[in-house]
Amino acid sequence: MVRTLRATGVYRADWSLVIVNWKPAFADMVAEMERRGIACHDAPPVWCWTVYSPFNQTATSLLGYPDWIHGRWLLTLDVPDALTLPTSYAVWNDYLAYTMGSADEPSTMDWSGRRVWKYDELQVTIPELRLEWVLRAAEYHPDPETAAAAAKWEKEYEEYLRAQNSP
């Protein structure tokens, strides 16, 4: 992503990186963005969170150990409002569960962009990431517990790979 952003000034997400069971909900997000005049260029949206979101909790819950091992960056962006779609993180996760077949409702997504309870946060989707929107970029490290677990996972995974490649 960083290489692409530096080389072209634009990064678009790739459908091949979207978990198969999530694709229907992501396609609905793209369709809503398109209805609002936000062109996604046949790509899934890029997910962002507001400055008020608990970044560490969100990152820890969404990223796996391989993600932390390879490093992550926290970007501060200034995206034109007309190219953003804010939605409730709680409602989105309920809708995501519905589209995967593990919940009875909600059968439609609430696109109002309002929080539904006091612990809810807004997520923001954008059609792409543009270099001109990046105000700041900093390496983003996990909390110590997650870092230790990721290091343990990496060691165990390397041992597993060595065992698989042994005669």
Description:
The strands form three sheets. The chain has a three-stranded antiparallel beta sheet with strand order 2-5-4. Strands 1-6 form a two-stranded antiparallel ribbon. It has a two-stranded antiparallel ribbon with strand order 3-7. The termini are far apart. The model has no long low-confidence stretch (mean pLDDT 91). It is globular and about 55 Å long. Helix content is 40%, strand content 18%. It has one domain. The chain is α+β, with helices and mostly antiparallel strands and 167 residues long. The protein contains six helices and seven strands; from the N terminus they run αβαβααββαβββα. This is DUF3841 domain-containing protein. It comes from Nocardia acididurans.
Blueprint of the fold:
Layout: H1 2-8, E1 10-11, H2 23-35, E2 46-49, H3 55-62, H4 65-70, E3 72-77, E4 85-88, H5 89-99, E5 122-126, E6 129-130, E7 134-140, H6 144-165
Antiparallel strand pairs: 1-6, 2-5, 3-7, 4-5
Protein name: DUF3841 domain-containing protein
Distance between the termini: 37 Å
Low-confidence stretches: none
SS-derived structural category? alpha+beta
What overall form do the CA principal axes indicate? globular
Q: Bin the helical content.
A: 40-55%
